[in-house]
Amino acid sequence: MKPVYLGLCALFCASACTPTPSKDAAQRAKPQVVPSQSAPVPAPSGSASTAPAQDAALVAPDPGPRVQIRPGGARSTQGEHGVVVSVEKHATRAGVQMLEAGGNAVDAAVATAYALAVTHPSAGNLGGGGFALVKAPGKPAVFIDFRETAPAALDRARFRKLIEARAQGPLAVGVPGTVAGLELARERFAKLPRKTLLAPAIRLAKRGHRVGHRAGLTIGWAWYALRKDTAAKRIFGRGDAALKSGELLLQTDLAATLTQIANQGAPGFYAGSVAKRIEKATRGALSAADLAAYRAAVRSPNHVNYRGLDLEVAAPPSAGGITLALIIDQMRALRAWQYPRDSVDFLHLFLESSRRAQTRRRFSVQDPDALTADTRERVLATWRDAAPLLQAHPIHLDRATPSKEIHPLYEAALAELEHTTHLSVVDKDGMAVSITTTLSSGFGAKLVAPGTGVVLNNSVASFASMGDNVPVGGQRTTSSMSPALVSQDGKLVAVLGSPGGDTIPSTVAQVFFNLADGQMSLEDAVDAPRLHHGFVPDEARYERRRAPPKSVLEGLTQRGHRFSKKKIPIGDANNIVVVGKTAYGYADPREGGLALAAKAAR
After folding, report:
1. Nearest Cα to Cα of residue 28 among 65, 55, 56, 59
2. CA 128 to CA 444: how far, in whole Å?
3. Structure confidence at residue 61 as a pLDDT band (50, 70, 90)
4. CA 214/CA 244 separation, integer angstroms
5. CA–CA separation, 277 vs 271, rounded Å?
6. What mean pLDDT do residues 115-126 have?
7. Buried/exposed code over 449-462 (b: 16+ C-beta within 10 A; e: otherwise)
8. Residue 509: HSE in the Cβ half-sphere, 13 Å Cα cutoff
9. Which of 180, 243, 280, 490 has its CA 20 to 30 A from that of 330?
10. Each residue of 340-362: pLDDT tens digit?
């Protein structure tokens, strides 16, 4: 049998070389294929399809009919003066306040992110890191990397100890990047004063706010570990019980830290009393010198083209951005758009593409600053190249490929361990921001630096014991965070992203395919069922409350896919689409956030 893959030259030709499809392209029912031996070529099947009798080798890319991005839908929020979407209502409102005060998308995003450090403490943070994509109208996106770095003293022995401690406690803490990243974005793009942007967060921390439903759940889930830390127990508990939804959360120490940042900028966090208290809380594992040395970085985003849509996605050290681009590029090469979006064929190709792309995330990507100047571009190019994935392990249309056949480190990866939040903003002028931030695990290292209110990350556990992302002092660890911006004909059409660990690329890709191939409204694209394959373990996942039809699951099982018993929600896509001058925002109901449109600036 011949596998489903294109000749490598044609397969990965830049979309600029692909002619615009003719009007009759939409009428084509079959891909242009070379039959496997003399077997008949299978046409795309419906949602209850069984595996075709033969595979086929595709020989030329075909973008198909032009993609038309649809508006958000009746349940989305729409406006022409800007839209903010986040996981928490107070944080969304903080961002909208900035738009209505005359600020731009970066002002709104920075205010929202600082507010999330107060109201969504399991993932919103000062003590973690993240990635941001900022795009001004008509200009390329700018990628701001504020991923945490490893303390200078990290070595293999310390890494083994933190893994044995279940990535909790001082040894797991990386140098936080959030404050540096938000400050870099503010200095480069924002219009409003720093104190204005931090005012809502300071007010929420000092006066307190009622714990929301989602925050109440996350505090309860982490309480067993949080109560072991005196500072965390005092903030997030009442005696021996965890704070519950509806109770007042006061964070006076955090208000003081935010005030120092408002007055001093990054030095208010990376030097002075805050830095000394973080050093003390980590027992010196993370030193004041580590904090003083941290810098956020500006990098060029990664690009991938799909059916005339240009995606600008997070670049390394975002291994998730690489994974997202590789999934999309493989699906483009396989012309998966010709199969119904909810069919066995499309979902099989998606799971197989995900399985292969995840090997690159797990074993190949590392901190690009660790590469020498003369090798960096060459190595970055190999990370982005999807051709070897399909060349070495072709995707068969009628059967799944076991993960152990795809990478020799499969068995070793079974021994490895892995909260994140995403926000999206578009302003009245079309500037867009996509930010994903993380503490790695929920509440990170389950450690609060006394006197600061800062919940500290456990990002050092994101290094691996095999592959290229191994623990090295001073280096950034990779991350699955994958913020993305989508343009068509040079104009922004979507702001995408999600939390969810290794499921992030799967979530973002599926929302994108729903918009592009499924021609869904934003709300339907976000609400639709999601699947995931992370390479290891060798099983696919789906959501219990949003499961695909039984016939689809049976069809995938017949092709060799095994399904996990873990059926929790996958991702939380707080996303935006733009049609004409109108932005449509939708908060994913999986975690229950808020999308809000701004009124005209005062």
Report:
1. 65
2. 8
3. low
4. 10
5. 10
6. 97
7. bbbbbbbbbbbbbb
8. 35
9. 490
10. 999 999 999 999 999 999 999 99
Tell me the C-alpha distance between 231 and 452, whole Å. 9
Q: Which two tokens stand for residue 478?
A: 């990779």
Q: How confident is the model at residue 91 (pLDDT cuts 50, 70, 90)?
A: very high
Mean pLDDT of 230-257: 97
pTM value is: 0.90
Task: Determine the Cα–Cα distance for residues 237 and 249; give it in Å rounded to an integer.
Answer: 9
Q: Tell me, what's the pLDDT at 400?
A: 97
- With contact defined as beta carbons under 8 Å apart, do 219 and 241 qualify? no
**Is-contact 327 351, C-beta < 8 A?**
no
Q: Could you give the CA distance from residue 159 to residue 417 in angstroms, rounded to a whole number? A: 12
Backbone angles phi, psi at 448, to 5 degrees: -115, 130
If we measure between CA atoms, which residue out of 315, 326, 18, 296 comes closest to residue 140?
Answer: 315
CB-facing half-sphere around the CA of 90: CA atoms within 13 A: 24
Please name the helix (run of DSSP H) or strand (run of DSSP E) that holds residue 33, with its range, or none: strand 33-35
CA angle 202, 203, 206 (to 5 degrees): 80
Q: Looking at the annotation, which residues are catalytic?
A: 420
Q: Which of 496, 488, 540, 539 is nearest to 514 (CA)?
A: 496
Instruction: Quote the DSSP letter at residue 503.
Output: G
Tokens of 379: 């190595």
Tokens of 194: 């720093």
Please write the tens of the pLDDT for every residue from 133-175.
999 999 999 999 999 999 999 998 999 998 898 889 999 999 9
Task: Give me the DSSP letters along 454-500.
Answer: EEPP-GGGGS-SSSS----TTPBPPB----EEEEETTEEEEEE----
CB-based contact 600:95 (threshold 8 Å): no
Give dist(CA 280, CA 284) in Å, integer: 6
Alpha carbons 463 and 277: distance in angstroms, whole number = 25
Helix (H, G, I), strand (E, B) or coil at 520: coil
Residues 3-14, buried b or exposed e (16+ Cβ, 10 A)? bbbbeeeebbee
Gap between the Cα atoms of 69 and 484, Å rounded: 16
CA 593 to chain centre: 16
Q: Is 521 helix (H, G, I), strand (E, B) or coil?
A: coil
Q: What are phi and psi of 572, to 5 degrees?
A: -155, 85
- Residue 502 CA to chain centroid, in angstroms? 9
- Residues 503, 570: contact at Cβ < 8 Å? yes
Phi, psi (5° rounding) for residue 556? -70, -35
Report pLDDT digits (tens) over 573-586.
999 999 999 999 99
Closest by Cα among 327, 402, 326, 412 to 363: 412
- Report the C-alpha gap between 525 and 517 in whole angstroms: 10
